[in-house]
Design goal:
mainly beta; about 625 residues
């Protein structure tokens, strides 16, 4: 069945292919025609399948699953893939295979030549160009990490596609990137229902045009009876799925591949309680014609934290896998001073995977300080992120900028270029912002680049507690498990952070910490697992430390420019600062003298700290 049209507009009617119970079993193509000069319907545009009021329901053949992971490493020139779970994909289907290293160009689009009887082996129509890891890395002691390439299905029997332009209009700016769009903008409360299941959307989205996205739910309020499930959106010139001013929708089991701009896009910061379950996003490309943030896009761009993300995978983005980009208020047509995304209560984030992204696996930027009473100052409330696996990213596995009571629980990070986890500012109580039950790995056998230089990089202000963390494979001179003072100016710092339940198997025990300058940080060891001294403190060496109560020769903390020391629990430290100095140059070029003891053996010359204004 082939339906071709320039515009399809549903207002009070129904467009339906198959039903939930009786899926369409043949091939159905809805092909949207048009070019950049076509007149646009107000709000909806051109080359569009638009729903104003009524039903849009498209049901393709069911699949056992739309994506899975490799059961075994596949090597260059291999012609088959062994899978973790059985599939029912058939000859001629198009699939996509994720990279597992740091080069996003190692993503491969392939064709199925056949499938084994048990569905766990796929025979390829073309050999692999690159190796793709598919193993459990086991470091002993129960410390494992899954590094397995995702394999996603692109082909379905019900297709919505844009015509491929040729001739004069294709030569105009964006003319060859003018795809189809599915747009839902309802006329009133409870007037639309959208159910897209096991369909394929391709050659979609319209480049250089805001609001002209592949699948676009636009200012439609509560859509808890609508969904997009087990479908593919690929080769889109403008996003994959946009949730704009909608709540309660379900996006489940979808595969999005080769997308320009943020792929799964939450637009205004007002959207809440949408569920993103077990989706795969792969190869998110930058765009210079949408939002500024689209130049460094995320596979999942999240502007309100009160949404649900479970079991998703983000691989091969131009910048980020998951990006919580939280403003002080909602914005765009949804602007309201009563909506404060950066103070909003947290939804759910658990069991997600981010890898092979050019910058970071997970980013929370710029500020997230969830409050018991949203938009008000007052008590913080916890935001608990569970069991992210983040590996082979171009900068960090995880970066938090300014956060309060954000808890990273059960994270596994590996093969990231700079740091596994980096925090810039952590606010709140000692047990507020925490890292706990984590596995931090410098490199694995899948790593194709240089080992990560840092495990956890600490904030430049405030306090936090790190509990039950295991550091693995920090065993070269340039590596250290713990680094201090993220985004610090020179000689800034001096804050205390607390540690307990740490493990340093193998040579990682020789690379615990590095310091860049004196007085940079205080690492308080609550149980002796960092320093061997219960209640002890690891810190940079300086002239103010009493040699009878501090070990001034600590090789495992002396990997940076300044050697490390360990002091006994009875050595107390006080950080102080001069506030609101006026005039501002009062202390410029001067030194503060610190008398640490009445004993004449301590020289005032050694007990000086250079003054610095921040």
């Amino acid at each position: 069945v082939l339906l071709q049209a320039k515009y399809i507009f549903i207002h009070g009617g129904r467009l339906q292919v198959g039903t939930e119970e009786q899926r369409f079993q043949h091939r159905a193509i809805i092909r949207l025609l048009g070019h950049v000069r076509d007149p646009e319907i107000p709000i909806y545009g051109a080359k569009v399948l638009a729903l104003r009021q009524g039903h849009l329901e498209l049901y393709g053949k069911r699949n056992l699953r739309t994506w899975t992971r490799l059961a075994k490493t596949a090597h260059a020139n291999d012609t088959q893939l062994q899978l973790q779970e059985p599939v029912d994909w058939v000859h001629g289907d198009s699939i996509v295979l994720a990279p597992t290293g740091k080069d996003t160009n190692e993503t491969e689009e392939l064709f199925v030549n056949g499938t084994s009887a048990d569905g766990r082996t796929i025979y390829l129509g073309n050999p692999l160009a690159y190796a793709h890891h598919g193993e459990t890395e086991d470091f002993g002691g129960g410390n494992t990490i899954e590094i397995r390439a995702e394999v996603g299905l692109l082909s379905h029997n019900v297709i919505v596609e844009g015509s491929v332009l040729e001739g004069f209009y294709s030569s105009e700016l964006g003319g060859d990137q003018y795809g189809a769009q599915i747009m839902i903008h309802r006329a009133g409360f409870n007037t639309t229902q959208v159910r897209l299941s096991n369909i394929e959307v391709r050659h979609a989205g319209q480049a250089f045009r805001l609001g002209r996205y592949a699948v676009h739910f636009h200012l439609s309020g509560n859509l808890n009876n609508s969904w997009v499930r087990h479908s593919s959106i690929h080769h889109s010139f403008n996003r994959a799925i946009t949730a704009h001013g909608v709540h309660g929708m379900l996006f489940e089991g979808n595969v999005a591949y080769n997308i320009k701009g943020h792929t799964f896009f939450i637009e205004d910061g007002i959207e809440t309680e949408n569920r993103y379950l077990y989706n795969l996003g792969m190869v998110t490309k930058g765009s210079s014609s949408l939002l500024n943030t689209d130049q460094l896009p995320a596979t999942f761009w999240i502007t309100n934290p009160n949404n649900v993300f479970i079991g998703n995978a983000a691989a091969g983005s131009r910048a980020y896998g998951f990006w919580y980009d939280l403003d002080a208020n909602s914005f765009g047509p949804s602007f309201s001073r009563a909506i404060c995304p950066n103070k909003e209560k947290f939804g759910v984030f658990r069991d997600n995977v981010a890898h092979s992204n050019a910058e970071m696996g997970l980013r929370i930027w710029e500020t997230y300080t969830p409050r018991e009473k949203v938009c008000q100052l007052g008590n913080y409330t916890d935001a608990s992120f569970y069991r992210l696996t983040s590996y082979a990213n171009g900068i960090h596995g995880v970066e938090l900028t300014i956060v309060a009571h954000v808890k990273l629980i059960g994270f596994k990070v590996a093969d990231n270029r700079d740091n596994g986890i980096e925090l810039q500012e952590g606010l709140g109580a000692w047990d507020g912002t925490t890292i706990q039950d984590a596995l931090v790995i410098s490199y694995t056998s899948a790593n194709t680049g240089s080992p990560g230089t840092g495990g956890i990089k600490l904030p430049n202000v405030r306090r936090m507690t790190i509990s039950n963390v295991t550091f693995v494979n920090f065993d070269t001179p340039s590596q250290s498990c713990i680094r201090a003072c993220s985004h610090c100016k020179i000689e800034q710092g001096g804050f205390e952070y607390r540690f307990q339940g740490l493990k340093f198997p193998g040579k990682s025990a020789l690379h615990k910490a590095s310091f860049k300058w004196k007085h940079e940080v205080l690492l308080k060891d609550l149980d002796g697992t960092l320093t061997g001294v219960v209640g002890g403190t690891m810190l940079p060496l300086s002239g103010i430390l009493p040699p009878d109560r501090c070990n001034l020769d600590v090789p495992e903390a002396s990997l940076g420019p300044i050697p490390g020391a360990v002091c006994q629990a009875d050595v107390k430290f006080l950080r102080f600062a001069c506030n609101r100095v006026a005039p501002i140059n009062t202390f410029t070029g001067r030194r503060l003298l610190l008398n640490t003891s009445s004993s004449p053996s301590y020289s005032e010359v050694n007990n000086t700290v250079n003054w610095r204004h921040y």
